[in-house]
Amino acid sequence: MAKEINTIGVLTSGGDAPGMNAAIRAVVREALSKGKKVKGIYKGYNGLLNEEIKDLTARDVSDTISKGGTVLYTARCAEFRTEEGQKRGAEVCRKHGIDGLVVIGGDGSFAGAQKLANLGINTVGVPGTIDLDIACTEYTIGFDTAVNTAMEAIDKVRDTSTSHERCSIIEVMGRNAGYIALWCGIANGAEDILLPEKYDYDEQKLINNIIATRKRGKKHHIIINAEGIGHSTSMARRIEAATGVETRATILGHMQRGGSPTCKDRVYASMMGAYAVDLLCEGKTNRVVGYRHGDFQDFDINEALAMQKSIPEYWYRVSRALAI
User: Fold this and answer.
1) The pLDDT of residue 126 is above 70
2) Relative to the CA of 222, which of 97, 211, 242, 314 has its CA 20 to 30 Å away?
3) pLDDT at residue 288, rounded to an integer
4) Which of the residues 107, 131, 192, 298 is marked catalytic?
């Protein structure tokens, strides 16, 4: 029979995402409602190794659900990628009486959680990343806010692009995943969408499309460029030289990570945080919380990390058709 969980630790790792605070709040309050103690681990795995750990009460997470970023802070930790660092992390958990750990982050954070689980620390991962690149889940905390932030910014760029009859290349985040670019491309009615999963790096196609739309009387041309492709500024220079159309690059950058989370990010993050606590209290470990087919589910971390995610062909085909 699994040992009863008495103290649950929670940390955020990797890039921050709007809604992380809602998940932290849910972990703390769900655990307290079950009679468990909660310890907040500051600055991710780096803070775990440095023992930056504090007892959390319900009051500590008051008025945090509407805030962007993470109140527990986050940091990269090269040391935790080593076997020695992982063993020390497990020792720190035991020293502080943490017998269940909730890790909120992306696939890199889950890899760390997997290592701790292998060392006997009960762990559950909660997907917190704006990139939507975790294959086991249809939703990741922060994506909804980030994509809405980007959409609103692109609408504004379109206004000035139309006024000056420009071509605008707008670069959105997402690392090597093109989901933010795809969603914004559809939502903003972009003429071209460049996705790492699909782009063939044939710039002449873009140039030909810009010239063709100008001939049809179009006053602007919006290209959504994913971070995984990048080089938007140099691309803009080449396109302007080839087409004679004034072309500007706008890199939205880290503004997409910030801001007050949307209702969806607050609610789904809350459900995922509470679900993670419930799994630990049931004696489960080495799990990842996900959302699939309209319900919250959990998956084995090993299986989750092995899954591959790709851009749905139908979505991509429709995005091309609507851009005509």
Assistant:
1) yes
2) 314
3) 97
4) 131
Distance of CA 72 to the CA centre of its chain: 17
Q: Are 43 and 289 in contact (CB under 8 A)?
A: no
Q: From the DSSP assignment, how many helices (H) and strands (E) are in the chain?
A: 11, 11
Q: What's the burial of 272, exposed, middle or buried (CB within 10 Å: 0-12/13-18/19+)?
A: buried
Tokens of 228: 């995984």
Query: In the predicted model, what is the mean pLDDT of residues 107-129?
Result: 95
For the stretch 148-193, pLDDT in tens is 999 999 999 999 999 999 999 999 999 999 999 999 999 999 999 9
User: pTM of the prediction?
Assistant: 0.95
Characterise 53 by phi-psi region: left (phi > 0), alpha (psi -120 to 50), beta (else). beta
**Cα distance between residue 36 and residue 172, in whole Å:** 41
Model pLDDT for residues 49-65, shown as the tens digit of each residue: 999 999 999 999 999 99
Distance CA 186, CA 183 (A): 5
pLDDT tens-digit profile of 251-273?
999 999 999 999 999 999 999 99
| Cα–Cα distance, 77 to 46 (Å, whole number) | 5
Strand order in the sheet with 247-251: 192-194, 221-226, 167-172, 247-251
pLDDT, position 2: 59
CA–CA separation, 4 and 100 (whole Å)? 10
Inter-residue contact 102 to 3 (CB < 8 Å): no
Q: Give the Cα separation of 86 and 169 in Å (integer).
A: 42
131 flagged as catalytic? yes
> What pLDDT is recorded for position 1?
44
| Three-state SS sequence of 150-194 | HHHHHHHHHHHHHHCCCEEEEEECCCCCCHHHHHHHHHCCCCEEE
The set of residues, in sequence order, having a beta carbon less than 8 Å from that of 206 and lying 6+ positions away, is 192, 223, 239
Q: By CB neighbour count within 10 A (0-12 exposed, 13-18 middle, 19+ buried), where does 294 fall?
A: exposed
Q: Residue holding tokens 């504004």?
A: 156
The pLDDT assigned to 60 comes to 97
